[in-house]
Amino acid sequence: MTNVCLLGRTVVGMLFGSDDPLGKIIRLQNQPFRIIGVMQPKDLSSNGFDQDDFIVMPYTTAMKKLRGMYWLDDIYASAISADAITPAVEQIANLLRQRHHLRPGEPDDFNIRHPEDTLKAQESTSHTFTLMLGSIASVSLLVGGIGIMNIMLVSVTERTREIGVRMAVGATEQDVRTQFLIEALTLSLAGGAVGVALGIVASTGVSKLLNWPSIVTPFAILAAVAFSIAIGIFFGYYPALKASQLDPIHALRFE
């Protein structure tokens, strides 16, 4: 039960800055610990956890001197290969049952978790999170599309006389329909451009604030543009169709 420890790079930076910590003493729960080494940096894990923000010490020292315990809560084990994981789990289970003096038929008084369980839990969480974000995005697109359609319907109503004049001087239904579709598409693309810019700014801000890695890929930007085009065409078609079907005579008399 020696009072020695190894520090991660993050801990070294917070406690000593640029000074060399080797041989120095730190206190944990009012007990002195001598620093005998610094771990190689590992940076962030896949879930955003800082793998350099930790202290390593003998487990007997941590159990008995810091926590006042005489048993281990968790043990991390590593198999030599992926194929060896299942046999290793069985061997560990048998050894623990033997050490805990469990009779045949008695339930285990311990839990063994291996990487597949962790991966399945992460996949389930990621799938649920994706569905939630997809639902929110779908509602947002629907609301935005309805807003575009309403704006274009108001525009058609306010510009009825203009439409009548265009038709009177030779504009076809196709010309009018194309005009209003282009206006709806422009409005949708403008909103999409603002959304992409705000998304990039928000992603960068969250990444810096919480130290979470974030990447905005070109595919995501192209997908946003494609959805903007689709929303503009889909929700702008009805107002454009309504404008193209106006009677020029009635349109010219509209006040």
Report on this structure.
With 255 residues, this protein is of the alpha+beta class. The chain has a four-stranded mixed beta sheet with strand order 2-3-1-4. The chain has helices spanning 9-16, 59-67, 85-99, 115-158, 160-168, 173-210, 218-244, 248-253; strands spanning 4-7, 25-28, 31-38, 55-56. It folds into three domains: 4-73, no CATH class; 74-112, no CATH class; 116-253, no CATH class. The longest helix is centred in the middle third of the chain and has 44 residues, at 115-158. Helix 4 packs antiparallel against helix 6 (173-210) and helix 4 packs parallel to helix 7. The termini are far apart. It is built from eight helices and four strands; from the N terminus they run βαβββααααααα.
